[in-house]
TrEMBL record:
PTM summary: Carbamylation allows a single lysine to coordinate two divalent metal cations.
Family annotation (InterPro entries): Amidohydro-rel, Hydantoinase/dihydroPyrase, Metal-dep_hydrolase_composite, Metal_Hydrolase, Metallo-dep_Hydrolases_sf
Modified residue annotations for N6-carboxylysine: 157
Protein's recorded name: Dihydropyrimidinase
Transmembrane segments: none
Family the UniProt entry places it in: Belongs to the metallo-dependent hydrolases superfamily. Hydantoinase/dihydropyrimidinase family.
Cofactor: Zn(2+)
Keyword tags: Hydrolase, Metal-binding
SUPFAM superfamilies: Composite domain of metallo-dependent hydrolases, Metallo-dependent hydrolases
Superkingdom of the source species: Bacteria
């Protein structure tokens, strides 16, 4: 089956150009100058599916490198399954996710990966890969890393936060980084000083500061900066490439920018919540409302100017990717577990559906350029996680994961509007986007078509990933 997308502007990190796109089966086979050749008009006449993209952007499907579908966490489980979460992602123009398989201390990482494959199998509407969380660094899990790399799971996340749950001490981090350096795997880090945070949390609760706002103040930026710096030093010592997930403090980014300036293989991911939302406005919302925005790292103070600095670091390139850290919980029954004690609120925000739109708004607002939007949301995540050029680019030979994005369209985010995630609230209720995801193709199949969902559970395939490409 062939599909011909004509009249649109193809956007890549290196530029934008009016080009028609020919898809054969599940791959892109050609980009053609519009209407310039007889070949073009023949194709229009003979293609099975014709898509008019006049006045619209033709971009690679979004690659969200950080999601947690149905992850057991904080005494409950993230509310999107692989089925509901990937359907919502598709609606929002994301065609690949990389989710996290979770190893708890004592378990085998091979077994945890197998159980995540089982959860996802037959459920996904779009393609999915896995990172592996190592919750218990020991000689067995370290030995298992090379095995997972061979199976296409080429990145491993450690936690400097959550003592007693996923926490790794500095010796464990050092050993895992040595193994990552040996295998070429990417080390991902949740960089917050969890030991110090737990003391501040205990003190806040003892003082009676139990509201969601104090989740933010007890996870102080100093403890993100400190952990980020420590991770960078350990990575430098071992030679492991380091990817710091969900960076929210401007001071942590300064650490990363300095290391990158010195030539170190260190990368930063941030998320839309840290660019748009704040400690004062969201976490500090009246009564228990702020629980909707409890996540870690936390939303930062707007008065301190973190949000503007994060946008700036996207422009400088020191923020390498934008992912969602999609980890949704319903307000009723889940977030409510922490009424009277913020430390019992399950940590996470769901936004897998809205990343492409929210970041496009950054283009409209003059925060970033059009090409940078595609770069941080599609192309660089694909390269970072060993999926390029199959994913992340509209080019011959690539998977036909394509989004037709309408810059004249509008999207209102809210539970009664564009919401397909399995959450009973939206973290962006009422936000209006000056753009719209019109059509989404996953490997050549139209899965969203102007407000109609045509995808199906089981269409998505596991993406066996290569080692990360050298991005510095
Ligand atoms: O609050 C968050 N970020 N929840 C998901 C787990 C993690 O640390 O990424
Ligand atoms: Zn984390
Ligand atoms: Zn996460
Ligand atoms: Zn539209």
């Amino acid at each position: 089956m062939t599909t011909f997308i004509h009249g649109g502007t193809v956007v890549s990190p290196t530029g934008s150009q009016q080009l028609d796109v020919l898809v054969d089966g599940d791959r892109i086979v050609a980009l053609l100058e519009p209407g310039s050749t007889a070949v073009g008009s023949d194709l229009a006449a003979t293609s099975d599916v014709l898509i008019d993209a006049t006045g619209k952007y033709v971009i690679p499907g979004g690659v969200d490198g950080h999601t947690h579908m149905e992850m057991p966490f904080g005494g409950t489980s993230a509310s999107d399954t692989f089925e509901t979460g990937t359907r919502a992602a598709a609606w929002g123009g994301t065609t690949t996710i990389v989710d996290f398989a979770v190893q708890n201390p004592g378990g085998r990482i091979q077994d945890s990966l197998a159980s995540w494959h089982e959860k996802a199998s037959g459920q996904c509407a779009i393609d999915d890969g896995f990172h592996q969380i190592i919750g218990g660094v020991d000689s067995d899990s370290l030995k298992g890393m090379a095995e997972l790399v061979a199976e296409g799971v080429t990145s491993f996340k450690l936690f400097m936060a959550y003592p007693g749950v996923f926490y790794s001490d500095d010796g464990q981090i050092l050993r895992a980084m040595q193994t990552a350096a040996d295998t070429g795997a990417l080390m991902m880090m949740h960089a917050e000083n969890g030991i110090a945070i737990d003391v501040l949390v205990e003190q806040a609760i003892a003082r009676g500061d139990t509201a969601p706002y104090f989740h933010g103040t007890s996870r102080a930026w100093q403890l993100e900066e400190e952990a980020t710096h420590r991770a960078i030093m350990l990575a430098q010592l071992t030679g492991a490439p380091l990817y710091v997930v969900h960076v929210s403090a401007k001071q942590a980014l300064e650490q990363i920018a300095t290391a990158r300036g010195a030539g170190q293989n260190v990368f930063a991911e941030t998320c839309p919540q840290y660019l748009y939302l704040s400690l004062e406005e969201q976490l500090g919302a009246p009564s228990f409302e702020g629980a909707k925005w409890v996540c870690s790292t936390p939303l930062r103070s707007r008065e301190e100017g973190h949000q503007d600095e994060l946008w700036r670091y996207i422009r400088t390139g020191d923020v390498t990717t934008v992912a969602t850290d999609h980890c949704p919980f319903c307000f009723q029954g889940q977030k409510e577990m922490g009424i009277g004690d913020f430390s019992k609120i399950p940590n996470g925000i769901g936004s897998v559906e809205h990343r492409m739109d929210l970041m496009f708004q950054g283009v409209v607002d003059g925060r970033i350029g059009l090409e940078r939007w595609v770069d941080v949301c599609c192309t660089t995540p694909a390269r970072m996680f060993g999926m390029y050029p199959r994913k992340g680019i509209v080019a011959p030979g690539a998977d036909a994961d394509i989004v037709i994005y309408d810059p004249k369209g509008h999207t209102t985010i809210g539970v009664n509007d564009t919401h397909h995630m399995n959450m009973d609230y939206s973290a962006y209720e009422g936000v209006r986007i000056d753009g719209h995801v019109d059509t989404v193709l996953s490997r050549g199949t139209v899965i969203v078509d102007g407000g109609e969902y045509l995808g199906r559970a089981g269409h998505g395939r596991f993406v066996k990933r290569d080692l990360s490409q050298n991005l510095i």
